[in-house]
Amino acid sequence: MSFSLPPINDNPDGGWGPSSSNLPDQFKFKDIPYAPYSKSDKLGRFADWNETTTDTRQAAVGVPAAQNARTGAGGRRREGTQAFGSGTASAFAYFHVEDESSFSLVDNKAAPARRGGGFSRGRGNTRGGAGNYTTRGGTQRGRGGFNSTRGGVQRGGRRGWRDWEKNTRTRESSVVISPSWSMLEEIEFHRLAKLRLDVDEPEDLDSYGRLFAYDKTFDRITTKTEKPLQQLDRIKYNTTTSDDPVIQQLASKNAATIYTTDVILSVLMCAPRSVYPWDIVIVREGNNVFFDKRDGGPFDTVTVNENASDPPQDPSPPNPNNPNEKAPEAPSINSATSLSLEATYVNQNFAFQSVIETNPPPVVDFANPNPFYGPDETEPLASCGYRYRVFDLSIQEDEDFKICVRTEVDAYLPGAGNPREGQGLVTIRALNEFDPRAPGAGGAPDWRTKLDSQRGAVVATEMKNNSYKLAKWAVQSILAGADLMKIGYVSRSNPRDAARHVILSTASVRPTDFAAQLNVSFTNGWGIVRTVADLCMKMPEGKYVLVKDPNRPVIRLYAIPASTFSGEDEDVEGFEEEDL
Description:
Keywords: Cytoplasm, Initiation factor, Protein biosynthesis, RNA-binding
Number of strands: 22
Structural class: alpha+beta
Strand order of the largest sheet: 6-22-21-11-12-10-16-15-7-14
Pfam family, one: eIF-3_zeta
Shape: globular
Distance between the termini: 122 Å
Largest sheet: 10 strands, mixed
Main location: cytoplasm
Mean pLDDT: 79
Family: Belongs to the eIF-3 subunit D family.
Radius of gyration: 35 Å
GO cellular component, one term: eukaryotic translation initiation factor 3 complex
Low-confidence stretches: 54-89, 115-167, 569-580
């Protein structure tokens, strides 16, 4: 008994199935059409006689839509379950053509709409669709059609819940982008989140300033024993990097490559969490790069509920084309700008009030006096210590790439070691509550009723609504080498009065533990800093600005003229002298 293989005809075209150009004469299926398909098609089923397109009509090619077989709204297919050979012309499809020439409309009287809406089977435009249905606010046609409702007009049917209530006003940039500026780089936040760099412990170069002891009685404050927040006149400097005389001395000795402050560096390290716009001025002089801030910029204030789903909003400016529309006489105390100024005021005064300025315990003087306090100053100096530290950002062993950071601490803890050696240092911050029922509160609970009994819920809400601000505070404390963070909970005495506040409680937390709770990655932060620094080192000497887009998670690097930002005040003074 012998067995012989049948002849196999290869496809010279390189495709699947028999070739139409190379069919043998004895091939008995040569007159039967073949439905081609792509190798990327998912083999869900061999045949589907009820295959429908996106508009719920059978996929018949060459047949008008009005002549297609009727299908209901239930003939939908889930994505990813294509039939074998779907999307191609079906040579085996059966088309039933209706004879509509004899059709005539008998009754054209509209049926009364039932209350609450009712579905109706229609002909013409709604054939094969979802039909017409009437609602109390108007009429909708099919899926994705025109929708006229009481709340307004929408395209594409129903979108989100109460979209008309959401404030979709776009934010403005923190700095006006001039047309003469040239954009050099654009980096999305999702790319920044993937960067990693491990950095060793820093080296302390020098310390300046004077520290007072933290008042431990503030740790025993509760909502039942609240304490009024006092307004104290103290001087605390927030000088930018280039104006720091100590950094200028260190730069002349080539102590590092990058020079900045902890406030500016924390903004960059936590940039993927930011929502509001910000900008960093970058100056390259030789082999040195300085990260600066603008006077009156976003670094001088504290944001409120920046990461909330519905953050506080500033009122819209009046329409210049409408002369009858006027700006509000007084801004709301719950607007974004007013809350930011209030939070800055609360932070400063809480730090001033929560220290003991008289002996005992003794005042601790660092190795050098405050570098910014001149002999002409008459107001007392606030408790503040500056520690200049150097971090090594080198990637290779033969590389010398360091960053010098001016860090700040606010007080020291008595009995926790020698503050001059970096022991027992404390940073003091404050969270403020304005009105839990006001727009922009972010669903925060009432602190007076929940802070003592459900502190975890209050902390979780603040971590959600102020993720960026709290992450910056944790990074600043770790950069300064502080052992503890003191976070005060300050609320208004009356929700309608933004001038008087009370202290409800104070929490103590280690900065490293707090950063872990916030999921702050220091390796990612250093990776962002090194990436931006490498971009600046590739550029020639000059002035640049790193700008956070006000409405998108993107940062952009611009090259700007050397006189930008610094020449504005000089021009104003020159005009005043000419007028005199």
